Amino acid sequence: MDAPFEPTPLSDSEYHARTAAVLAGIEATVDRWLQDDVIDIDTHRTGGLLELGFADGSKIVVNTQPPLHELWLAARSGGYHYKHAGGRWLDTRDARDFFERLSECASAQAGKALRFEPPKG
Question: What is the tally of structural domains in the chain?
């Protein structure tokens, strides 16, 4: 299915840099929350795959898909695919922003409001 927007063409190196920044930003946010005693979320990263583990045993998985130049999100609410467009990662089905949905999914699974932000730059 075609995305409801025109994805921004990225070279392989641009794709890898942007997805690495997303994963690093998510990890940094979770680390900051742990340090500030906001919430305890376990993180485990293997290459382009980042797992977030919640107290109720549920997980959110963020995974890079280099051949497709996509970013995937799997949560209790479902699975989502994102392409880069206009400086944002947008859902290929409904053009919803990756960080909005990640925040919504994490908040639902954590039982408290959590907000992820895109990396700066």
Answer: 1
Rounded-to-5 percentages of helix, strand, coil across the chain: 35, 30, 35
Nearest to 49 by CA among 59, 34, 37, 38: 59
Q: Do the beta carbons of residue 116 and residue 106 sit within 8 Å?
A: yes
Q: What is the pLDDT of residues 63-105, one digit of tens each?
A: 999 999 999 999 999 999 999 999 999 999 999 999 999 999 9
* Domain that includes residue 98, residue range: 12-110
Confidence (pTM)? 0.95
Residues 15 and 103: their CA atoms lie apart, in Å, by 22
In eight-state DSSP terms, residue 7 is P
As a whole number of angstroms, the distance between CA 96 and CA 67 comes to: 22
H or E segment to which residue 63 belongs: strand 59-65
